């Protein structure tokens, strides 16, 4: 079989079919060629959907990483452009769902942090019940935020101490704490 050039930027279906077959067999060069062909289009679409360069870059990376991880199925893709458009749209929707859920969780944590431990609108809330509610809200945070929040609020560590313990920068700890509270 004659090897097809990977740098060809034609949209001929046969060219993409061969490229997908080579990706399915684990050809990294074929994958790199597909990435070069489509990354800009996927990134632009993500940027339009998310309005965030950082989010678009992260999602772009996830989309192509998943494609490579599931490369055995690549030869079954009929139309790469349509496939990537659908995957990109679905990944952006998943991101928005996750972000909405995280905002609700963060709002609950903020409410609990700002509320006096022993008061509610109906009177007094037992400290034990308050702590249970707070633990429930903390459990709903992403794992990294849980660790940082717990080390700060429950163990009383400073941002610098948390940074050393978790091998992070103090600025990352500060941002993580801010995100956990907002």
TrEMBL record:
<dbReference type="InterPro" id="IPR014284">
    <property type="entry name" value="RNA_pol_sigma-70_dom"/>
</dbReference>
<feature type="domain" description="RNA polymerase sigma factor 70 region 4 type 2">
    <location>
        <begin position="133"/>
        <end position="181"/>
    </location>
</feature>
<dbReference type="Pfam" id="PF04542">
    <property type="entry name" value="Sigma70_r2"/>
</dbReference>
<dbReference type="InterPro" id="IPR007627">
    <property type="entry name" value="RNA_pol_sigma70_r2"/>
</dbReference>
<dbReference type="InterPro" id="IPR013324">
    <property type="entry name" value="RNA_pol_sigma_r3/r4-like"/>
</dbReference>
<dbReference type="InterPro" id="IPR036388">
    <property type="entry name" value="WH-like_DNA-bd_sf"/>
</dbReference>
<keyword id="KW-0238">DNA-binding</keyword>
<keyword id="KW-0805">Transcription regulation</keyword>
<dbReference type="Pfam" id="PF08281">
    <property type="entry name" value="Sigma70_r4_2"/>
</dbReference>
<protein>
    <submittedName>
        <fullName>Sigma-70 family RNA polymerase sigma factor</fullName>
    </submittedName>
</protein>
<dbReference type="GO" id="GO:0006352">
    <property type="term" value="P:DNA-templated transcription initiation"/>
</dbReference>
<dbReference type="InterPro" id="IPR013325">
    <property type="entry name" value="RNA_pol_sigma_r2"/>
</dbReference>
<dbReference type="InterPro" id="IPR013249">
    <property type="entry name" value="RNA_pol_sigma70_r4_t2"/>
</dbReference>
<comment type="similarity">
    <text>Belongs to the sigma-70 factor family. ECF subfamily.</text>
</comment>
<feature type="domain" description="RNA polymerase sigma-70 region 2">
    <location>
        <begin position="34"/>
        <end position="99"/>
    </location>
</feature>
<keyword id="KW-0731">Sigma factor</keyword>
<dbReference type="GO" id="GO:0016987">
    <property type="term" value="F:sigma factor activity"/>
</dbReference>
<keyword id="KW-0804">Transcription</keyword>
<dbReference type="InterPro" id="IPR039425">
    <property type="entry name" value="RNA_pol_sigma-70-like"/>
</dbReference>
<dbReference type="GO" id="GO:0003677">
    <property type="term" value="F:DNA binding"/>
</dbReference>
